[in-house]
## 1
Amino acid sequence: MRRIAWRAGELLGVLFIVSFGVFMLLTLMPGDPAVAILGEGHPPADYEALRQELGLNDPLLVRYWDWLSAAVTGDLGTSLVPPQSDVSDRILGALPVSVQLAVMGLLIALVLAVPLAMWSAAHAGGTVDRIISAGMFAVLSVPSFLAGLLLIMVFANGLGLFPRAQWVRISEDPVANLHHAVLPAIVIALMELALFTRILRNDLIVTLNEDYILAARAKGMPAWRILVADALRPSSFSLVTLMGISLGRLVGSTVIVEYLFALPGMGSMIVTASGQGDFPLVQGAVLVIALVYVVVNAGIDLSYGYLDPRTRRAHA
């Protein structure tokens, strides 16, 4: 319980630092929110009246406190760029797209990486290991935009198996949603596959040299059973940590994939809002991404007790 309370305090601290940092940085961006709302060509008095109404003339810390006080209640403000809309509604519309793509991409990468890493570790130094390692380095060297373009050319434009610039929400049609999400999720999976495979392979090799593994081998246990039942779980610390970091990162950084496939996710929304000077939307989106990131990683940290009971005793 004490550990959970400590993690909750860390979570709140990180969110405060992120929100304050983003708020300060956005104040340095060029542009005038009043001009963004009204457009150009209005009398100076109109702009000044709007700035006064929005509190833009207040001291910086006062403006931050007003925004933070509202954000705690779930009110992230109103978008500045016409048509003006509630920031929370905009984020709730874009967040599920990015989260779904990130989760699907990580699951695809995990399903492929685990058997590849186990196979590679079981044949460490051999031909199979070298082939898998070379393949992962090749995948890692391909930029995501190039991989996306190739997949679009082959499977969307060439074979017509998948749509390119369309999105159907899962609440409207789950089957169509998966059909539209598979190709961009594969592009995301390729970014993570090589990293997952390499880090799990290295940890498995270390674990397979532990005394209890050698004892299991001496008892004549099958190699596959040793890998799956005895070596995989204690070798998953680094992989689980990397997955948590990747999930938080991907929710807000799938800009290239969302652009290639014209998807209405968080990444493309933040880029568009930044270009338009829509400060409230950028602030709210970054805060939500930070929240997703710290919550996921707090959950990953708490899962270590399941992966290795020794960590429960260490934190007791």
## 2
Amino acid sequence: MTTATGKFTPEGARSAPTSGLVAPRGRRRRPRPRALAVTLRTIGPLALLGGWALASATGALTQDVLASPAQVAQAVGELWGNGQLTDALSVSLTRAGLGLFFGATTGLVLGVVTGFTRLGEELLDSAIQVLRTVPFLALVPLFMVWFGITETAKVALIGVATSFPMYVSASGGVRSTDRKLVEAMRSFGLGRWAIVRTVVLPGALPSLLSGLRLSMTLSVIALIAAEEINSTEGIGYLMAQAQNYSRTDVLAVCILIYGLLGLAADGIVRLLERVLMPWRQVVQGASR
């Protein structure tokens, strides 16, 4: 039909207002204050700390079971004052860092090889999958036979534990790379290493960071197991000495340190995600 001005107007356009239809309105999202997010994240730990202090004050939690937060704080001051805490932290961080470096690097290289080349997958993947199913704790006696009670055994155990998560993530991320894009780069004359460096690794970056997060978490878990191998220094050595003398305050300090190391590892990966993948933060913020 035509209007008074001579322009054609569809029949449905004139009947839409009378049928109860309304124009769609976009949902406006207000940005969440940073201070509010930080406050909400601290509520849980503060609640646990408050419950711990209350149980200790009322006698529901005795010192022989677990020391109070005040006694744990005193133990931190004591260990920090005599230098035992700083020395133990330095040794444990060195062990975890070296094991993580060798393990994650090995897992990354093997994951790229098996994910990018068919020959690598056929030769290596089945053997690696068999080794991945073996718990790394079962390797402790074998490593003690091979390397003795040395730092090599501890670093090797952490390296084995951290290599498999990175391998699985890297292999899966590389396999998910767009093959058409790879073929296009080959048609432009790029070699294999150039394609891996410029196309495959950037495309697999989310998977690589997920694997790194798992590897860093496992490095702390493997560190606890590694420092049980007759250590004479490190956080595990402090725990063994505290167990011998029934020092629950020192035991609590060591447990909290292990937990803080895991939290710091997760924070490092989150920081890397913000730096290397800034677009991901924008997408996540828009979907909340």
## 3
Amino acid sequence: MLHSPDMSTDPTSPAGRISASKNIRFYLTAAQPCPYLDGRRERKVFAALDGHDAVELNDSLTHAGFRRSQNIAYRPACDMCAACVSVRVPAAQFVFSKRWRRVLARNQDVVSKLVPAHATYEQYALLQTYLKDRHFGAGMSDMSVFDYSSMVEETSVRTHIIEYRLDNEEGRLIGCALVDALADGLSMVYAFFDPRESSRSLGSYMILDHLRQAQEVTYPYVYLGYWVRGSRKMAYKTNFRPIEALGSSGWTDLSPLLNKD
């Protein structure tokens, strides 16, 4: 069920202002159980990404704290809760510490390849393995191959997949990242990996690989989506520092808030 947007949730707030001249229509979803924090309800404000300006609009909305799902850009708009915070890593300032160099070393036998945003059965099989191990019973766990195809291929913006494979004769697929290329960086839309390779820390490795890519081509940022304060599922994102969060005054260093915890 959809609702007309109310003015208490302003998608054009100073935290990420969108030009009114674009005449964008925003909508609010009905409240549903929050997938991250028990006992809370979530609502989302969203807009369609279509037309000839979809690429520019996706850039602007991502900078304003939205995330893309197929041809929709959405942002949390929950009543009495602001736990979901958009975060990004300034690539040029990121340092590959000893901890991160160890992760890279554990994956020296992994090769990455950029491929078009076309779904394959091999990718889908890996996704099912990942979801059954890491998110069993969650909203995506019953995703069909057609749902996966829609997630990957229904895009009007600059989207690609990075496939991660073992560098041997088998060339087994062990990770995938669905990524949008923005004017000011890379937005990691969704990533999944083989949970049987837990010793590799593949989730962290894929983020590190995108930070490395961003540094090589001088992209300013890698967008990691939402950090949810109080959610163990999202805590890993703050391991990548320095990290910026979107607040009422724009993008600022998240460290002061993290240091309070």
